[in-house]
Amino acid sequence: MIPVNYTDFTYTLENKAPDKNCPEGLKAMWFDAKGDWQKSHAIAQDLNTPLGSLIHAYLHRKEGDEFNAGFWYRQAGVPYPQVSLEEELQEIVEEILT
């Protein structure tokens, strides 16, 4: 089942894999939320869209690479976030679901 809101998204984290019909951006965020940074990053790298750049930025921010994150936030056209990583994850997931 594809989640319709962030709460539903968090429930899907109990599954072994994301729904095969989820958009790639949501799959990337799912893998990150499950602790698989590498798989999330691989998906984000293949998303040549502003959303892909945003996810890519978030992932590099999460790993502590502010310089690389800054580049990807600029590519996404958004300022460097002033919120926690948890809040940013939720914001990105909600953006994907809207």
Would you mind describing this structure in some detail?
- By secondary structure, the protein is an all-alpha fold.
- It has one domain.
- It has helices at residues 6-12, 24-33, 37-46, 50-62, 66-76, 85-97.
- It starts with 5 loop residues before the first helix and ends with a helix.
- The mean pLDDT is 96.
Keywords:
98 residues, mainly alpha
The chain-level structural class is mainly alpha
Percentage of residues in DSSP E strands: under 5%
Q: How many structurally independent domains?
A: 1
Q: Count every beta strand, where a strand is a DSSP E run of 2 or more residues.
A: 0
Tell me the distance between the termini. Answer: 16 Å
Low-confidence stretches: none
| General shape | globular
What radius of gyration results from the CA coordinates? Answer: 12 Å
Care to give the gist of this entry?
This protein is mostly helical and 98 residues long.
